[in-house]
Structures are given as structure tokens and as C-alpha cells.
Amino acid sequence: MIRLNVGLSRKVGQANFGSKGGSVNLEIELADLDNNKLRDSIHRLFSLAKQSLEDELGAEGQEAQDKPVVQVSVQPSGQTLQEAVATQGKLVTGKQLSFLQNLARTQRRDLQKECLQEYETYPERLTSKQASTLIEKWRSSLVTAR
Q1: What is the 3-state secondary structure of 44-61?
Q2: Which of 100, 97, 88 is nearest to 136 (CA)?
Q3: How large a percentage of the chain has pLDDT more than 90?
Q4: Fewer CB within 10 Å: C terminus or N terminus of the chain?
Q5: E strand or H helix at 37, and its extent?
């Protein structure tokens, strides 16, 4: 069994420096699935979370300038987050993710597509080691291109 947790948060600016926000987290347990079926389940659950958040925030939520913060965690049932981190390694840090996004933008790369091809996961779910490897790979290709 796999426990799938999808969370989405959004903050919307309002007049007079005000704001309102919403957050939704959904969790389900699934039988062990192959990567394609798992990815489809993640997308369906994320779509449900996104629609629910947009319904709560109304039309203003659709015009939000801030990008939603998305976290998808997949770990075997009964396994704590600490156990998952111990077996899979620490997750990508915010600085690593930001650096990868900047490298992708300057090198005209599709970060999500390349992470899915190389590691079969989304950028936010890379381990810190995977992110470091990708950063070094992209930085070295930048140096050799000059």
C-alpha cells in the first residue's frame, strides 16, 4: 500500500494590503501501482485539491499573483516521514530548487520534464543528492558551452 498526500496552498492579495488564503490537503491510500498509474492518481488528486481551493477562494483565487505551493509526498503505508527520509534521503532544499529553476530558465530547459525523465519524479520531490547531481550536470554543460 502507498499513502498519497497532496497539499496545495494559495494566498491572494486584496485591496489595502490585505490578503486571504486557503489551504487544502488530501490523503488517500492506494494499492501498489506502476509509475504511470501512480502519476495519474497524483494528477487526479491534485486536480481535486486545486478545484476545491479555487472554489473556496472564488474568482479572486484564479487571479492570484503568487504561485501555489505544492507538496506531494508518497511513502509506503505505515512508514513515518522520518523513516521515508532515512531510506530515500533528504528532500531537495528550497535553495537547491530555486537554483535549479534559475538554471532551467537561463539554459531554456524544462525542469519538470527533465526531472521526470531522469529521476521519475517532480522537481519538488527530488532528494537533495539528486538535486546536487543535476545542478552539477547543468553547471558543467554551461561551462563547456562557453
Answers
A1: HHHHHHHHHHHHHHCHHH
A2: 100
A3: 16
A4: C
A5: helix 35-57
- What count of residues does the chain have? 146
Is pTM beyond 0.90? Reply is: no
Indicate the DSSP class of residue 125: G
Strands across the sheet containing 18-30: 18-30, 2-14, 69-76
Q: What is the tens place of the pLDDT at every residue in 114-130? A: 998 888 888 888 888 89
Which of helix, strand or coil describes residue 67? coil
Q: How many CA atoms lie within 13 A of 74 on its CB side?
A: 21
Residue with grid cell 531510506, as numbered in its chain: 87
Nearest-Å Rg of the Cα atoms of the chain is: 17
| CA separation for the pair 131, 115 (Å, rounded) | 9
Amino acid in the structure at residue 128:
S
Within 13 A of 31's CA, how many CA atoms are on the CB side? 0
> Which residue in this structure is represented by grid cell 488564503?
21
3-state SS, residue 20: strand
Angle between helices 94-106 and 111-119 (to 10 degrees): 110
